[in-house]
Amino acid sequence: MKLNKIILFSVILLLFACSKSAKSDKKAIARVNNSYLYRSDLEGMGSGLSKEDSATQVSLYIEKWAADQILLEMAKSKVGKKESEKIERLVENYRNSLLVAAFEEESIKKELDTVVSNEQITEYYKSNKDQYISGKEMIRCHFIRVKRNLSEVDKLRDWFKSENKKDFEKVKEYCLSKQGINFVLDSDQWINVEKIAEMLPEKSLDVSSIKTDRVYDRTEDDYLYLFKVFEIRERNSPIPMSQVKDEISKIIIQQRSNEILQKFRKTAAEKVKSGKVFEKL
Fold it and tell me: Which side of the chain, N or C, has fewer Cβ within a 10 Å radius?
């Protein structure tokens, strides 16, 4: 117990003592044979904790570091030369991959144009419209499913049918303030018809008979259903560009990134073919 306190006190001094010179930061604080742990390796460890908790954390880290070094030495002594050479090749390949990845990332940061114009988005959308056919009927609408016994339901019905913007704000406020209401009040959002049908009484939604800009007011069992359709999109129609605009922008930027990378790969391939830096032995 006394020894542990001494260790903790020593670690506290190690962590919080002011450094008098750069040389002191390089001073080893632990050793396992020829492997050393330096004070700089512990920089930032235990920040935000009490001195005692910080010291405990550092002490545990040092012990784990020592155990890891011993385990590593055991592994080195037991692994055969052939396997060791294989590991070295893997390490070198991984290091090379990291270097190339860092180079590519830095190059993309410097060269990539992340501004995508509406004209470019429109051009991409027109050229790839077939990719945006979902095969499902979609709808833009306002929809409310509310219990009939809630207070001011009749007012909600009147507000919903009104063309006054202030009344629509009252509709939104009502739906947000009550519990147990299913609603869709974003007229710009395209929704799968099947999702709306799931909230309506069974088999009550027939897309072929729906007329736009007409309010459907229906009561069944304990619920009031209010439904207004603005636009219907057939299952073979592409998703509107407004719905996939952000997605297309990301695709265009990714294509530009790939073009930058391909440029470097092409340069490397051309140097190989030139024979100036490469030859088969």
Answer: C
Query: 153-161 vs 165-177: helix axis angle to the nearest 10?
Result: 140
Residues 46-64, mean pLDDT to the nearest whole number: 87
Number of residues that make up the chain: 281
Q: Could you tell me if residue 54 is inside a domain?
A: yes
Q: Identify whether 114 is part of a domain.
A: no
What percent of the chain clears pLDDT 70, i.e. is strictly above it?
A: 89
pLDDT for 94-152, tens place per residue? 999 999 999 999 999 999 999 999 999 999 999 998 888 878 888 889 999 999 989 99
CB burial readout 173-200, b (16+ within 10 A) else e? ebbeebeeeebbeeeeebeebeebbebb
In this structure, what CATH number is given to the domain that contains residue 188?
Answer: 3.10.50
State how far the Cα of 54 lies from the Cα of 14, in Å rounded to an integer: 11
CA distances from 148 to 68, 123, 167, 204 (A): 68, 49, 19, 18
**Greater confidence, 194 or 258?**
258
Domain containing 208: what range? 134-233
Q: How many domains does the chain have?
A: 2
